[in-house]
Design a protein that fits this description.
With 232 residues, the protein is of the alpha/beta class. The chain contains eight helices and five strands; from the N terminus they run αβαβαβααβαβαα. The chain has a single domain, classed as HUPs (Rossmann fold, 3-Layer(aba) Sandwich).
Length: 232
């Protein structure tokens, strides 16, 4: 039986709330839509710094646009905290403001790591390499910054393997001596909530993860779809 990472997160949050502490959390974020629900939920319990590290986004214009959307959402969330205005939000007056840390943009690092895996299907070995690259860097930065925890928004996607992400996160967390916060953010209607929040804030929702290979696959899928059909 696979571990219930959603329940593990709930238990960790219950422990933190009993202790009355506000731990620091480095939250790796892939994009604003995926981070929308995650930040809304976790800002009640953690002092969050979003870590924007996504060298897999191999088009500079796409990278910069997603980063700008991330910053716009964080600004809107922080305004809610400043004004104590949570109308329509799950958050309450317990919510904390969110910081952001932008990593250097280095797509060549990603491309060198996945060389030879260009034709792997989505969710295969190429994606595992990408997961480890981003989570390893997150663990390293979390240790250097003295964060209590680190985690990633990637588990909110129905297309991402939450078990694999948690296993990689736990492994690199042990290596760097930083606690990995378990998650399966798509559960408990998390993915549904991210769609609602994306609409509410007018966020750009891309139809591919970011790399040139996933964009290629998305275009191929669209070209093969019958006229008038909707892609999942």
């Amino acid at each position: 039986m696979n571990p219930n990472y959603s329940k593990a997160l709930e238990k960790e949050i219950e422990r933190i709330d009993r202790e009355g502490t506000v731990p620091t959390l480095l939250l790796h974020s892939c994009c604003a839509p995926c981070s929308s629900y995650v930040m809304e939920y976790l800002r009640e319990h953690f002092a969050i710094t979003v870590f924007y590290y996504n060298p897999n986004i191999t088009a500079g214009e796409e990278y910069r646009y997603r980063l700008a959307e991330e910053k716009r959402l964080i600004e809107a969330y922080n305004k809610q905290v400043d004004e104590q205005d949570f109308d329509g939000m799950h958050s309450t007056s317990r919510a904390h403001k969110i910081a952001i840390l932008e990593a250097p943009y280095d797509p060549e690092r990603y491309l060198s790591l996945v060389k030879g895996y260009e034709d792997c299907p989505e969710g295969g070995d190429r994606c595992s390499i990408c997961f480890e690259m981003r989570l390893r860097e997150s663990a390293k930065v979390a240790r250097e910054g003295g964060f209590d925890f680190f985690t990633t928004t990637l588990t909110i996607s129905p297309l991402k393997n939450a078990q694999k992400l948690n296993q990689i996160g736990e492994a690199v967390g042990r290596e760097y001596g930083v606690m990995f916060l378990p998650s399966d953010f798509k559960k408990k209607n998390g993915y549904k909530r991210s769609i609602e929040l994306s609409r509410e804030f007018g966020l750009y929702r891309q139809n591919f993860c970011g790399c040139a290979f996933s964009k290629r696959d998305a275009i191929n899928k669209e070209n093969k779809a019958p006229a008038g059909s909707a892609l999942a």
